[in-house]
Amino acid sequence: MAEPIEFTQAQLNWLPWLEPLPEAELTDRHWAGLVDPSRAKSPYFMLLARDPDILGARTRTDKDIFYNPTAGLPRAERELSAAATSRLNGCIYCASVHSRFATQYSKRGADVDRLLAEGVGVDLDPRWNAIVAASVALTEIPIGFGTDDIESLRAVGLDDLAISDAIHGAAFFNWANRLMLSLGEADLPG
Amino acid sequence: MSDLDVIDHLVGIAPGSAMAAIRAQRVQARDNAQNSYLALFKPDIATAFSMVERFAVAVFVVELHRQPDIAAFYATGLTRQADGGALLPAITADAGRGLTEGPYGRFPAGPLSVDDSEGPSFTAGSALGPRLAAALAHAHMLVFHPRDASPAALRALEAAGWSVDGIVTLSQLVAFLSFQIRVVVGLRALAAAPAPAVTLAMETH
Questions:
Q1: A178, A15, A59, B101: CA torsion to nearest 10
Q2: Measured between CB atoms, does B175 come within 8 Å of chain A?
Q3: Which CATH architecture describes the domain A75-179?
């Protein structure tokens, strides 16, 4: 195996440091926790399936925050909040997945590359800068997020549902980053 | 007793309010954030990761985030557990010793090393016993410097009596709180800064 040493939009693997559940041991409760049966092919989800109830609730939270197509923040910018949070926390694997999605939905791959290369202080454009800065303010401890962030998000055109989506995107990646960073590691394919 | 929605409770969102309407547009996320709380703090199936341990870790994690109102909610949960109230002073004292700023930590050696930042590791007080002390040390790493995670950190949990299943639930609990706290802080800020009244209609022709 080979550990990636830079942030990248390329596809990476993830290798668990603890033993995932073998598929033969899955009960109905485990399948319910996996939500999508195809996730039984993922060592990450098969490790988390050791506690299926929290896995199932987490997966459904994740899907609505990022996939709900009704109004709010465009998908590209929900992914931007996830990628910026992952860049700051240092999750190379999470950043790879969500920078690819940000690029796919925004068609701004060069800007996404600059976020990965330069970090969360990068100057993109006023709207993306405001979303990245809000994600940073919400991720750092002490948490600096406040009225100034709400006002700067409004100033670049986000309505209240879109602001709530940005908050949830960054908050959710503070959940995801901690699992992916601490239960296994990224691996370069091939 | 029906369970109150913890995020609504901690933000102060009343039924019928503008903030309730925003959350209602992401009802699956709202309901499953609550279901996540219940899965961790009111589980259907008891495990070796006891309720007193769960609430003790929660109080520690929230206090590290310097969110006294949210910490008080979990402290109430801790004091409702047998022997939980007796633990609270030690947990609070440990959290006070653990306060720092994050995220910090090391990247894999290479071009990102210029962004490495050092910060403290945490050792819990011995009064808590080896299992809970190991859990707090791990939680401190997850909260402030998750990119310093390592297989050795998991071996330390195992050496203190944590099973693989228990480590997964412990990790989910700390990571979930990292989410819940930020949703509460973010939505409180949104609720405190309502959008200005729309006057566009008067300005358009």
A1: 10
A2: yes
A3: Up-down Bundle (1.20)
B199 contact A CB<8A: no
Q: Do B195 and A164 touch (CB under 8 A)?
A: no
pLDDT exceeds cutoff 80 at B205: no
Taking CB atoms and an 8 Å limit, are B36 and A61 in contact across chains?
yes
Q: Where are chain B's structural domains? A: 1-42, 46-182
* B46-182: CATH topology: AhpD-like (1.20.1290)
Residue A147 at interface with chain B, using a CB cutoff of 8 Å: yes
- Mean pLDDT score, B4-21: 96
Portion of chain B with pLDDT greater than 90, in percent = 90
B38 pLDDT higher than 90: yes
The yes-or-no verdict on residue B201 having pLDDT over 90 is no
pLDDT of residue B200: 54
Give me the residues of A, 27-56, that contact B with CB < 8 A: 47-48, 50-51, 53-56
Q: Which pLDDT score, from 0 to 100, does residue B203 have? A: 52
Q: Which of B40, B144, B169 sits opposite A141 (nearest CB)?
A: B144
Sequence ranges of the domains in chain A: 75-179
Mean pLDDT of the residues in chain B: 94
Q: Which residue of B has its CA nearest to A154?
A: B195
